[in-house]
Every structure is written in structure tokens, then in C-alpha cells.
Amino acid sequence: MSSTKKTLVVFGGTGLQGGSVARYFLQLPNSPYRVRVVTRDPSSEKAQAIASQGAELVRGHLDDADSLASAVKGAHAVFLVTDFFTNVENPENEAAQGKRAVDAIAQSPTLEHFIWSCLPSAIEATKGKYDAIIHFDGKATVTDYIEKQHKDLWAKTTVLWVGPYMQLWLQMPQMFAPQKVVENGKETYVSLSNAGPEAVYPSVDVSRETGKTVHAILKKGRELAGKTVTLVGDLEQTRKQMLEIWGKIVGKDVEVRQRTDEETMQYLASLNFPEYLQRDITQVGPAFQEFPGLFLGKNAILASEILSEDEKLATWEDYVKSANWEPLLSL
């Protein structure tokens, strides 16, 4: 029976996005795919955990072209995601890694569908006003590379724009979560940002939603070739609304405060962020506030439109209720 299954190759299978994809297909009843996870270290605890669920592990590194060619051999579908934060010291390398993987994937004669998880071009979406958001634009250059340099592959490609992770409040609390402030004996969790309280943050529970969205894309097949799908759970939720929902559920007083761009840069410098990343993150909030349709693009299709009626995307409220906030509250 398994010999009739096609092969789905998942990059980043030990991370949030790729892990969601791998787990979804491993747990899917009568899945048409066997799952192959590409990992730098097959012996790692996370890799072994996904292997214990039935995934095939192959060693591969986005800096090693030969390992990538071996990893995608015989693939019928490929899910690719790159990680900006592992390239912080050399941000241009993320795009180079993406292009290197694309070159290998394009050579696979068995390939039927390629899903490239990335982000929209901030430069294009903001008409050049916000030009330092490298962690968006680096990925966007890979999309452009596929379309212009690998036209045959582009005819099999679906671009997946994944919105800001709801998990970021717990993953990177110093950057994204409200901070505990005690003033006159009163404890308040304060959200500090250079974006205003009405700035829209189209977030997504990436661990829960990526797998089922990839499944929906693969079921659509060539219908979504050359198209972009946007994966966000809450399209219109503001920074203030997110904070108020969180405060109500965890039982904490909350407050939104705004700081200047200069204060934001100074704070990021205190976290030892390189200067280019200080500029990058400082531009994100204002870009989201001024261009709330940043994740919609010209012709992007909402993931909710291709999912079945019983596969509703989680809201921020759903995520807050399900997450363990003790690590944040104990800081």
C-alpha cells in the first residue's frame, strides 16, 4: 500500500511551519504522501521525534547544493521554508539558500507541485516607502527568481505568504510581548511599539494552520500554480484588540503605549541587534499601520477560501486560550 504513495519533501520539518506540515500528513488518514523531512541533524531530539511518527529523515543543508539534490530526489511535492534568524549575521544568505534549494528542486523530474513559504515584498507593497524590511524582501527575491529564472518550476509553484506568528509573543517576548511594569504598586502589562494602537497585525497560529493549508493547496493542484495564498487567521485585528483579548483571558491589566522610532532603535540596540535589523524591525509596525493590506497583495487568495467549511482558521482568541502563558508571566 505504502509503495503507491507519492513523496512529500518537507524542509524545516523540525520547526514551526515545516513541523506543522510534516505532522499533518503523518497523521492524515489515508494520506496520499509519505513524508520525507530534510534536516541538518537527523540525530537531534526534534528530528527523532518526527521520525518516531513515521517520517523519513534525510540529511540536508541549505548551504550544500549536493545534499539538496539528494534530499529532493524522487519528490512529487516539496514544501520549502527558509529561516531568516539563523542568518542574522549574514542576512543575504537567506536568499542565497532559497535560490540554491530552488535550483535543486527545479531539477527533479518527478515533481508535480512546489510550495514556497515566504513573505510579500515590503518595498513593493509600500511603494518603496519602507525599504529596510530585509526579512520580507529577501524571501521575495527568491519568489522573483523562481518566476523569472525557472519558468517550468513556476508553472508548478504555489507561493504561500505566512502571516506573523501568534507564537512570537512566547518565542521572542522581549520583542513582541507586553512587558510587566509596576508603577505605584500597580502591576500592568504594557505593549510598547512605534506603531499606533490601531495598527493591524494579521497573525496566524502557524503550528496549527500550516499543515492543513498545504494539504488544501496540494488538493487544488495546478489550479493554484503560479498563484499566491495568504495564511492569516485574523486579518483585521489591531494591536490594541490583541492586547485587550490577552489581558482578559490571562487576567492581567494591560495598556498600549507608543514610542518613537528612535526609542525603538535604542531598545533594539540594547538587545544587541545589528543595526540593519534595528532598522528592519523599526519599519515593520509603521508599514503594517499604513498599509494594512500588505498581506493581501494584488491577487492573493485567502487560505480560508480554499479550506473546507469545517477547517476554520484559529483566531488570536483561540490561540491565547490554548497557549501556556506561564513562561511569559513569570518573567
UniProtKB/TrEMBL annotation:
Q: Which InterPro entries match?
A: NAD(P)-bd_dom_sf (IPR036291), NmrA-like (IPR008030), NmrA-like_oxidored (IPR051164)
Database matches in Pfam families = NmrA (PF05368)
Q: In what residue span(s) does the NmrA-like domain sit?
A: 4-319
User: Is NADP among the key words of this record?
Assistant: yes
Q: Which CDD domains match?
A: NmrA_like_SDR_a
Question: Which keywords label this protein?
Answer: NADP
**What Gene Ontology terms describe where this protein resides (cellular component)?**
nucleus
Q: Which domain of life is it from?
A: Eukaryota
Name the PANTHER family on file: NITROGEN METABOLITE REPRESSION PROTEIN NMRA FAMILY MEMBER, NMRA-LIKE DOMAIN-CONTAINING PROTEIN
**Family, per entry:** Belongs to the NmrA-type oxidoreductase family.
List the protein's name. NAD(P)-binding protein
Q: What species is this protein from?
A: Lophiostoma macrostomum CBS 122681
